[in-house]
Amino acid sequence: MNMPILDKMKWIPLVLACFLSVISCKEDYDVYEINDLDVLPVNSEKDKPKTSAQFISILYTNLFQTAIGPNKMLEAQNAVLSIGDKQIAYDILVSKYMRDGGVVLPSLDDMKYNTETFVRETYQRFMIRQPTEAELKWMMGYIESRPNLTPELVYFSFATSNEHFHY
After folding, report:
1. CB-neighbour burial class of residue 139 (10 A; exposed 0-12, middle 13-18, buried 19+)
2. What is the count of structural domains for the chain?
3. Stretch 24-41: mean pLDDT
4. Does some domain include residue 22?
5. Are 121 and 162 in a shared domain?
6. What pLDDT, on a 0 to 100 scale, did the predictor assign at position 41?
7. Of 58, 76, 104, at which residue does a domain stop?
Protein backbone atom coordinates (compact mmCIF):
# COMPACT_ATOMS: atom_id res chain seq x y z
CA MET A 1 0.00 0.00 0.00
CA ASN A 2 2.79 2.38 0.61
CA MET A 3 4.30 1.69 -2.72
CA PRO A 4 1.93 3.84 -4.85
CA ILE A 5 2.34 6.78 -2.46
CA LEU A 6 6.14 6.59 -2.77
CA ASP A 7 5.85 6.50 -6.54
CA LYS A 8 3.67 9.62 -6.44
CA MET A 9 6.17 11.33 -4.15
CA LYS A 10 8.93 10.90 -6.76
CA TRP A 11 6.93 12.88 -9.31
CA ILE A 12 6.15 15.85 -7.06
CA PRO A 13 9.70 17.33 -7.13
CA LEU A 14 9.87 16.85 -10.90
CA VAL A 15 6.51 18.53 -11.49
CA LEU A 16 7.43 21.30 -9.06
CA ALA A 17 10.79 21.87 -10.83
CA CYS A 18 9.09 22.05 -14.23
CA PHE A 19 6.47 24.46 -12.92
CA LEU A 20 9.10 26.73 -11.37
CA SER A 21 11.26 26.71 -14.48
CA VAL A 22 8.32 27.75 -16.69
CA ILE A 23 7.22 30.64 -14.52
CA SER A 24 10.70 31.83 -13.60
CA CYS A 25 12.26 31.99 -17.09
CA LYS A 26 10.91 35.31 -18.23
CA GLU A 27 13.20 37.73 -20.00
CA ASP A 28 13.09 41.23 -18.60
CA TYR A 29 12.66 44.06 -21.06
CA ASP A 30 13.66 47.57 -20.15
CA VAL A 31 11.36 50.21 -21.58
CA TYR A 32 12.91 53.63 -21.91
CA GLU A 33 9.97 55.29 -23.67
CA ILE A 34 12.05 56.63 -26.56
CA ASN A 35 10.10 57.77 -29.58
CA ASP A 36 11.00 56.30 -32.96
CA LEU A 37 12.73 58.75 -35.27
CA ASP A 38 13.03 58.46 -39.01
CA VAL A 39 16.56 59.37 -40.05
CA LEU A 40 16.69 60.66 -43.59
CA PRO A 41 19.48 62.00 -45.79
CA VAL A 42 20.12 65.72 -45.58
CA ASN A 43 18.66 66.45 -49.00
CA SER A 44 15.71 64.04 -48.72
CA GLU A 45 13.19 66.87 -48.56
CA LYS A 46 14.39 68.21 -51.91
CA ASP A 47 12.27 66.01 -54.13
CA LYS A 48 10.73 68.47 -56.60
CA PRO A 49 12.77 69.10 -59.75
CA LYS A 50 13.31 72.71 -60.69
CA THR A 51 11.87 73.94 -63.95
CA SER A 52 14.29 75.15 -66.61
CA ALA A 53 13.48 78.77 -65.76
CA GLN A 54 14.03 78.16 -62.03
CA PHE A 55 17.31 76.33 -62.58
CA ILE A 56 18.66 79.00 -64.96
CA SER A 57 17.59 81.87 -62.72
CA ILE A 58 19.05 80.31 -59.56
CA LEU A 59 22.24 79.24 -61.35
CA TYR A 60 22.79 82.71 -62.78
CA THR A 61 22.18 84.33 -59.40
CA ASN A 62 24.54 81.89 -57.66
CA LEU A 63 27.34 82.50 -60.14
CA PHE A 64 26.97 86.21 -60.90
CA GLN A 65 25.40 87.40 -57.61
CA THR A 66 22.78 89.34 -59.58
CA ALA A 67 19.44 88.52 -61.19
CA ILE A 68 19.36 87.38 -64.80
CA GLY A 69 17.84 89.75 -67.36
CA PRO A 70 14.89 88.69 -69.52
CA ASN A 71 16.92 88.54 -72.75
CA LYS A 72 19.61 86.34 -71.21
CA MET A 73 16.91 84.15 -69.64
CA LEU A 74 15.20 83.64 -73.00
CA GLU A 75 18.53 82.90 -74.67
CA ALA A 76 19.44 80.33 -72.01
CA GLN A 77 16.00 78.67 -72.12
CA ASN A 78 16.15 78.39 -75.92
CA ALA A 79 19.61 76.85 -75.65
CA VAL A 80 18.37 74.27 -73.12
CA LEU A 81 15.31 73.45 -75.23
CA SER A 82 17.42 73.04 -78.37
CA ILE A 83 19.38 70.16 -76.83
CA GLY A 84 17.51 66.89 -76.26
CA ASP A 85 19.27 65.88 -73.05
CA LYS A 86 18.62 68.47 -70.34
CA GLN A 87 21.51 67.27 -68.16
CA ILE A 88 23.97 67.89 -70.99
CA ALA A 89 22.32 71.21 -71.76
CA TYR A 90 22.67 72.31 -68.13
CA ASP A 91 26.31 71.18 -68.04
CA ILE A 92 27.03 73.22 -71.17
CA LEU A 93 25.20 76.22 -69.72
CA VAL A 94 27.20 76.02 -66.48
CA SER A 95 30.44 75.75 -68.50
CA LYS A 96 29.46 78.78 -70.59
CA TYR A 97 28.68 80.82 -67.48
CA MET A 98 31.91 79.75 -65.77
CA ARG A 99 33.93 81.10 -68.73
CA ASP A 100 32.22 84.49 -68.42
CA GLY A 101 34.36 87.16 -66.76
CA GLY A 102 31.51 88.36 -64.54
CA VAL A 103 31.30 85.22 -62.40
CA VAL A 104 31.86 86.00 -58.73
CA LEU A 105 34.28 83.39 -57.39
CA PRO A 106 36.40 83.25 -54.27
CA SER A 107 40.12 83.37 -54.85
CA LEU A 108 42.26 80.24 -54.91
CA ASP A 109 43.99 81.47 -51.73
CA ASP A 110 40.63 81.80 -49.95
CA MET A 111 39.75 78.25 -50.94
CA LYS A 112 43.12 76.79 -49.90
CA TYR A 113 43.71 78.73 -46.67
CA ASN A 114 40.14 79.21 -45.42
CA THR A 115 38.86 75.83 -46.53
CA GLU A 116 36.16 75.41 -43.90
CA THR A 117 34.69 78.85 -44.60
CA PHE A 118 34.85 78.20 -48.35
CA VAL A 119 33.02 74.86 -48.01
CA ARG A 120 30.35 76.30 -45.71
CA GLU A 121 29.72 79.28 -47.99
CA THR A 122 29.59 77.07 -51.08
CA TYR A 123 27.01 74.76 -49.50
CA GLN A 124 24.96 77.76 -48.41
CA ARG A 125 25.20 79.33 -51.84
CA PHE A 126 24.26 76.27 -53.91
CA MET A 127 22.38 73.92 -51.56
CA ILE A 128 20.75 76.55 -49.32
CA ARG A 129 21.90 74.68 -46.23
CA GLN A 130 24.94 74.07 -44.08
CA PRO A 131 26.95 70.90 -44.71
CA THR A 132 26.77 68.03 -42.27
CA GLU A 133 29.92 67.32 -40.30
CA ALA A 134 30.69 64.36 -42.57
CA GLU A 135 30.22 66.46 -45.72
CA LEU A 136 32.35 69.24 -44.26
CA LYS A 137 35.23 66.95 -43.28
CA TRP A 138 35.14 65.05 -46.59
CA MET A 139 35.04 68.20 -48.71
CA MET A 140 37.82 69.85 -46.72
CA GLY A 141 39.99 66.73 -47.08
CA TYR A 142 39.23 66.59 -50.80
CA ILE A 143 40.23 70.21 -51.35
CA GLU A 144 43.36 69.97 -49.19
CA SER A 145 44.56 66.79 -50.94
CA ARG A 146 44.27 68.16 -54.49
CA PRO A 147 46.67 71.03 -55.23
CA ASN A 148 45.31 71.58 -58.77
CA LEU A 149 41.68 71.97 -57.67
CA THR A 150 40.25 75.43 -58.37
CA PRO A 151 37.13 77.23 -57.12
CA GLU A 152 35.73 77.00 -60.67
CA LEU A 153 35.81 73.20 -60.56
CA VAL A 154 34.19 73.11 -57.13
CA TYR A 155 31.45 75.51 -58.22
CA PHE A 156 30.89 73.51 -61.41
CA SER A 157 30.45 70.30 -59.40
CA PHE A 158 28.00 71.95 -57.00
CA ALA A 159 26.04 73.61 -59.82
CA THR A 160 25.62 70.29 -61.65
CA SER A 161 24.91 68.14 -58.59
CA ASN A 162 21.61 66.29 -58.23
CA GLU A 163 20.71 68.23 -55.10
CA HIS A 164 21.07 71.55 -56.94
CA PHE A 165 18.52 70.38 -59.54
CA HIS A 166 15.84 69.98 -56.87
CA TYR A 167 14.16 72.14 -54.28
Report:
1. buried
2. 2
3. 70
4. no
5. yes
6. 67
7. 104
Q: Which of 86, 30, 18, 85 is nearest to 56 (CA)?
A: 86
Using CA atoms, how far apart are residues 28 and 48, in angstroms rounded to an integer?
Answer: 47
Q: What is the pLDDT of residues 63-85, one digit of tens each?
A: 999 999 999 999 999 988 898 88
Q: How far is CA 55 from CA 45, 84, 163, in A?
A: 17, 17, 12
Return d(Cα 165, Cα 167) in angstroms, integer. 7
Residues with Cβ within 8 Å of residue 102, at least 6 apart in sequence: 64
At 6-28, the pLDDT tens digits run 566 677 777 777 776 766 656 66
Residue ranges making up the domain that contains 149: 105-167
Residue 8: per-residue pLDDT: 63
User: For residues 64 and 102, what is the distance between their CA atoms, to the nearest angstrom?
Assistant: 6
* Arithmetic mean of pLDDT over the chain: 86
C-beta atoms surrounding 143 within 10 Å: 19
Same domain, residue pair 165 and 143 = yes
Residue 39 dihedral angles phi and psi, to the nearest 5°? -100, 120
